[in-house]
Amino acid sequence: MRPMRSLADRLTLSFALVACVLVGILMLTLLSAFSQFNQFTTESGQRHLSQVLRSQLEQDATLLADTLSAQLDIPLYHLDLTEIGKQLRQVQSKPGLEYALLFDSNGQLVHDGSEIVADYGRPIDTLEHVPGNTDQVWVGEALHLLKPIEVSGQTIGQLALAVDFTQALETLSEHSQAISIEAAEKQRQLATQLVAGSVTLLLLALLLIWLVCRRLFRPLRQLADKGLRYGEGDKSVSFSLEQRDELGQLGNALEQMRRSLEQSHHQTTQLAYLDNLTQLPNRHWFQQSLERLLQYAERHGQRLGVVFIDLDHFKEVNDTAGHDMGDLLLFEAAARLRNLLLELDICDPESGDVLLARLGGDEFVTLYPAPERSDQVAELAGKVATTLDQPFLIDGRYFNISSSIGITLYPDDGASSSEILKNADIAMYAAKQSGRNQYAFFSPQMNLELHERLEILQGVRTALAEAQFHLEYQPVIDLRNGSIRAAEALLRWEHPEQGLISPARFIPLIEDSDLMEPVTRWVAQQAIHDLLELQSIYPGFVISINISGAALHQSSTRDFLTDLIQSQHVPPHCLSIELTETSMIRHLEDCRETLVQWKHAGANIWIDDFGTGYSSLSYLHQLPIDGLKIDRSFIRELRPESDHSLVQSIITLARGMKLKTVAEGIETDSQLTCITALGSHYGQGFGLYRPMRYESLKPLLEQQCTETAS
Amino acid sequence: MTRPSLTDISLRFCSTALLLLLSLPLTAQTLVLAQISDRPKKDFRQLRPMVQFMAQELADHGFSQGDVRLFPDYEQLSAAVRAGEVHWVTETPLTAARLVQAGLATPLLRKWKRGQRSYQSLIYVRADSDIHSLQQLQGKTITLEHRNSFSSYLLPFMALQSNGLNLVPLDKPGQMPNADQVGYLFSRNEKNNILWVDKGVTTAGSVNDGDWTTPGRLPDGLTDKMRIIYRSEAYPRAFELVTAALSDTAAKALAQRLSTLDTRKPELMQRYEQTSRFEAASEQDLTLLRQLPTGVTP
Q: What is the b/e burial string over A664-684, where b = at least 16 CB atoms within 10 angstroms of the residue's CB?
């Protein structure tokens, strides 16, 4: 059985139980009272009836005696025995008359109604059955009367009369019994009616109670229903009841609570869905909006453009100018984007709100509802790029950032919100990979690339953990005597399945990630470890490590390297740090500080791949640089018959600035001859030495030292 | 033709009714039969059918209906006869003799009342008493039936007187006469008479022989306890007499009709005081009536 839940039902049941018990007690009391009353009434009635009957019988008997005595006075006076006998016999013939006797004034029998009055003259005292001393007496069921007979005021005799009322009294008794039986029957009827009436009334009362309870509790149930509906998200619910009683107050209280809750909910929503920094909607909001707009687009058969915006080099702003600046820049960027969208009037078709959110970090996303052509979205992306490409003036400083933008279109590039957003992210990444400050539409190929990238990123983590990395060293020779002077540490990744993975494949991939720092640290530690070992063989031997632009701008990397050099007591000028031109050009001032610090620590600073990057050579003056590594593209062109003026100029420049030079990528003897002739200090390349493991480098150096010594 | 008015009709009806009322005594006479009675109820019942029947029989003589008139005593009867209100009297010899001797009625028929043509008076005492003659009643009491009784008043009175006894009336039972007297009381009927004697209320009683011998007239078995000490002569039981109010022809017609009733209407006769027959009153009867000493009684 189902447990009873309704308050009304339970209340009704309680009432029913109480009412049943009360009615039961009442009925039992009533029935008992009925029974007692009935018995009392019957007995009392019988008693009264008996009394009345006896009284009536007495009256009758008295009347009979009176009448008889009145009729007998003259006959007695005349002693008319025949008349007396006739009168007496008439009376005696009546049923129930026991005797009718006439006595004279002396109490002697005058007549007994018989023919010959055999007992004539017999004294009344001798008649046992005649109580001669009282006027009226009941003996058993018989009434005995003694009536004086008077003539002219003189008593001349007395009439003795006895009437046996047994039959009448028996009849009364029978009637009484019949009355008792009828009363009992009536009592049963009454009891039945009482029970039936009570049950009917009880049921009626219960029905009424139930109805009243239901009516009473209906508002409560309404409130409960409303509460449920409200809980299920029906915001149209109002708890106010149109009544003033306690339930009405409860309704009002709930309504007040609902409003507070709504307000609180609104605030929470604000907190939950708004980005504190930019006051733009956050990722949560965006995901919901995207979901909703996707459904909207699906319903209306429209397309939906997703424009994923990532600020280029924003990390550098944070790293170089501090997070406060970064935040201000983000705020400014958000304001520009918002204004742009307002200008273009690109907004939510349902709410009319601007569809712009900050997903986190330097990522923004905007939606383009119902684009008719994809180039409309591209146009928006272009305008976004243009807007963000303008320099930001923050706290008196100009910052140049750009943006990489990925575009996806529903339904072509995904059916679900997560898929389409993920693909937009991929497209953005692709754009960023393609050289930043551009936009790209998503293509499935990007997905593959991304997969690869993710695999590599994961692989790098594994490689760090499982020591899949190792360093190879490419010796750098002194072009004057051909001896090994230094070696460039090159990171190698021996993948257990894929074999050797080229640094060109994974270094750019991890450059923008948080992996750059641990990888840089590992390289630095390993290289210094090897360097210190080699110092015993070849004191003053130099090992160079490459620091990427990303690592360069991280103060943590800067300090780590400094601390490492100092703590390991790396001999001065034995560790060279190679940096590319492009990695240094941005934030030149910050870069210089880092380089000075390293320099003070005892490291040499070299410009790697010199001649390929953008550079105004002025930085060569501003930075504490020790030397230049001439890019292999210049060396590759060196042939005896060709023009060497460019390399000559570089070398001349370096000499002029008292900088050393290394010619990279020497592969042939003619290149070696040429560069040697041009006056470069050092050379490096496959034509001299291939990169080799430390285990190979060490004996090579030992052998050189031995030869030199010998 | 005009309809008669309501007043006319009423007037006519009233005048017709008046005429009828006026002509009634002329055309319809009531035959009146009379008797002295102290038990009128019983006597009316016995007499009325006969007078009504006879009135029809005598319709030719102007009688259309019959009626009974009962009188408590002779004086009232005689007054009514004198007034011409009575046509016919049925009585025992004492009253008959008084009427005849007063010239108020003539005996028409001798009536066998109670089946008796004639009867005699008896005087009796309790058999266990020591009285055997009338003389022994001196200083005692006797009960007679009533003052108009022939057999139980006149005849015993005459008998006691003729025995030289001095009779005095007593007021009530239990009263005693002087020693030289005989006190008498009226018992009203024959049953009381013998009961009184039996119960010792009086010493002697007197009834007629018809009562004595006919079963049921006296309480059973009492006569056996009695001793008859005197029997009178036999006298006619009763007479039918006519007054001067009845014409001779009517009287003759009445006599004729009554005489033949025993064959024609025996049940009517039986009802009429158990009369078994009528016979013509003889000269001897007339003489008896004329000579009967009605004056011996007080």
A: bbbeeeebbebbeebebbbbb
B90, B110 contact by CB (below 8 A): no
Determine, for residues A79 and B220 on separate chains, whether the beta-carbon distance falls below 8 Å: no
DSSP string, A147-187: EEEEETTEEEEEEEEEEE-HHHHHHHHHHHHHHHHHHHHHH
Q: Is the pLDDT of residue B25 over 50?
A: no
CA-based nearest residue in chain B for residue A78: B172
Polymer length of chain B: 298
The pLDDT confidence band at residue B8, using thresholds 50, 70 and 90, is: low
3-state secondary structure A29-40: HHHHHHHHHHHH
Q: Which of A76, A79, A110 to mutate to test the interface with B (most CBs of B within 10 A)?
A: A79
**Interface subset of A 69-88, CB within 8 angstroms of B:** 77-83
Which among A403, A211, A196 has a CA at the least distance from the CA of A314?
A403
A234 SS3 class: coil
pTM for the whole thing?
A: 0.48
Distance from C-alpha of A400 to C-alpha of B86, rounded to nearest angstrom: 179
pLDDT at B166: 92
* Dihedral over alpha carbons B36, B41, B46, B51 (to 10 degrees): 70
Q: Among A521, A468, A514, A516, which residue's Cα sits nearest to residue A492? A: A468
- H or E segment to which residue B88 belongs: strand B88-91
Here the tokens at position B142 are 């006797």
C-alpha torsion angle, residues A663, A665, A669, A673 (rounded to 10): -20
How close, in Å, is residue B222 to chain A by CA atoms?
A: 8
Q: How far is B149 from chain A (nearest CA, A)?
A: 17
The residues of B whose Cβ lies within 8 A of any Cβ of A are 172-173, 187-189, 191-192, 195-196, 198-201, 219-222
Domains of chain B: 23-116+237-291 (3.40.190.10), 121-232 (3.40.190.10)
Query: DSSP letters of A2-65?
Result: PPP--HHHHHHHHHHHHHHHHHHHHHHHHHHHHHHHHHHHHHHHHHHHHHHHHHHHHHHHHHHH
Pull the structure tokens for residue A69.
């005595």
Q: How far apart are CA B22 and CA B37, in angstroms?
A: 34
What's the pLDDT tens digit per position in A468-498?
999 999 999 999 888 999 999 999 998 888 8
Phi-psi category of A379—alpha, beta or left, where left has phi over 0 and alpha has psi -120 to 50? Answer: alpha
Distance from C-alpha of A572 to C-alpha of A563, rounded to nearest angstrom: 14
Q: What is the ipTM of this complex?
A: 0.76
Closest CA to B281 of B249, B247, B242, B226: B242
Q: Which of B236, B279, B242, B278 is nearest to B89 (CA)?
A: B242
Given a cut of 50, whether residue A287 has pLDDT beyond it is yes
Q: How far apart, in Å, do the first and last CA atoms of chain A sit? A: 107
Sign of CA dihedral A440, A444, A447, A449: negative
Which among A535, A541, A524 is positioned nearest to A486, based on CA atoms? A541
Spatial distance between the Cα atoms of A519 and A545, rounded to a whole number of angstroms = 12
My answer on whether omega of the bond before A411 falls inside 30° of 0, hence cis, is yes
Tell me the pLDDT tens digit for each residue of A38-72.
888 888 877 888 888 888 888 888 888 888 888 88
